[in-house]
Amino acid sequence: MNVVPDTSVVIDGRVSSTIEDGQFEGAMISVPEAVVAELEAQANDGIETGWDGLEELKQLAGLADDGRIDLEYVGERPNAIERGHASEGEIDALIRDIAEDLEATFLTSDIVQAEVAKAKGLDVQHVAPEARRVGTLTVEGFFDEQTMSVHLKTDAIPRAKRGELGEMHYEEIADEPLDEETMDEYAREVVDGAKESSEGFIELSEPGMKIVQFRDYRIAIGRPPFADGIEITAVRPIAQTDLEEYDNAQELKDRLLERQRGVLISGAPGAGKSTFAQAVARFISDHDYAVKTMEKPRDLQVGPEITQYTELAGKMEKTADALLMVRPDYTIYDEVRKTNDFEVFADMRLAGVGMIGVVHATRPIDALQRLVGRVELGMIPQVVDTVVYIEAGEVNTVYDVRTEVKVPAGLTEEDLARPVIQVTNFETNEPEYEIYTFNRQVVTVPLKDDENGPGSDSGVDRIAKQEIEREIRSIAHGYVDVRLKSQNRAVVYVEEDDISSVIGKGGGRITDVENRLGIDIDVRTHDENPHYGTSDSEGSRSNSAGSGHSGGSGGGGQQAAGQTVTPDITSRHIVIPVDDNHGETVEVQAGGDYLFTATVSRGGEIQVSRGSAIADELEQAIDRKEPVTVVPS
After folding, report:
1. pLDDT band at 451, cuts 50/70/90?
2. Count of H helices and E strands in the chain?
3. How far apart are CA 125 and CA 105, in angstroms?
4. What is the pTM of this model?
5. Where is the PIN domain (predicted)?
6. Is the confidence at residue 131, as pLDDT, over 70?
7. What distance in Å separates the CA atoms of residue 213 and residue 228, rounded to the nearest whole number?
8. Domain range holding 214?
9. Taking Cα atoms as reference points, which of 119, 100, 105, 103 lies closest to residue 23?
10. Are residues 287 and 377 in the same domain?
11. Interval 308-332: pLDDT, tens
12. What does DSSP assign to residue 179?
């Protein structure tokens, strides 16, 4: 009897197991060179299936040495063209041709290959890999009840994160480091377990990296050259909670069930965001809502009634398109990080699907600010109307997000009324932030006084002061000092030589600035400043030089590291090329001084129309040969 196996059945080890069962005892096993070539290519690329297949060939060689089978290698290795068309079935066709020429039984575990071979008239035997109950993995033995994650690496002592939510400690859990052979054994056990058990699957398989979901564990395996050694990181949830266990539980329940909403669950890593998201998913699923998830990797712990989806053909956009056909009431989007994630989240929300996104943020307002520049400002409350901030496993803050047409806090002129996003504390019902466009940029203004003390500027004051300073500095050449006298009045002190330039002919220039900002401005010389030359004045000078984007922290400070760029001046624009941060919001600085905030285009540039105040200031900085830098905001 002559048997020709294809690549699939060699990889899954069913050739030797079939021989062990006595079915092909004494047969001639003819292994095509095309099979060997495929396995070799996969092994060279670090793909586990290649190594599995080579191990099976060694098993066959051992059976041949024992006289249980005859073994031969037949045919020719595929050429470069045939290898390049492997996905189109070229190599499969070569293997079938060998089976046909030898009039052999064609052995495969690939159902498509089996059906094609039957259609060609071959004697086909299709065997399917047998799923078996996999016992406890060695990696699982490193966990106890308080272990959230285990971290293993070649030549390093095993470590783990253990403790209660918000009180995790990264600690050693063994006395001796693990050698490469042991790590390789652990890694292969994890991958084999995922393949053989119905309780596991391989989420991601790339050269040098595999991500496995096995029972409650998400296990990432890195290998050289992607990693500098074999590394295994296993993570599992350590708590499963109900929504009733959180503060404001009843109010949150009522809010979620009232209608489909857009919710961002935010917090620092390890704060308990996913645990809360799981509780929300189970709650709304139990109250007549169809719930799905979008995850990469899929590691939320939810019931079987909630289907967990990952990337479709490598793109979450395609997953979203499929879900819109399924029409869930709510979708849990785990790990909303990149611009593309926010765009998918927004598209689904605007299509009427309730969306709950999990976002990394170190402050409650930061989650909402990550939408700025990614979603049109006026659409943000339609995309996200609720922000839940989790800290140490508890609900720390809940924000209600809505739009009002009003004069922004800190401004007084009625003609300055505009759409304002008001962020209100859900528990106290007090507004805490306003987000709106101010002098051609989006600003996030804290409405409460700074915690530094009663004498410090409020968030609104800082915004106003920075904008006045920026406007005057675009006109004046010398030092500028701004003093706010009230919410609608300021005094600006400039060098005596700059007085005429700042005021302009007939007061026209300063009037234009007042109209733009909605603030009355009194222009004086530094000699009239009672603080000039004092430490208070020097502090103002320092803050003036380092003032930055008014995004929430609102103050000046140390200049952030950024990339130095060379702007290109055309007849109509100043074009700033940016290597990274495409689609992101950034600050543009000149000589360390803040100029403006902008969003980098997908083509990797920022365009500023010439003739604007920002462009004039930028051109002056270029003329002075000041370094222009782009800093992520």
Report:
1. very low
2. 19, 32
3. 7
4. 0.57
5. 1-115
6. no
7. 23
8. 138-235
9. 105
10. yes
11. 999 998 899 999 999 999 889 999 9
12. P
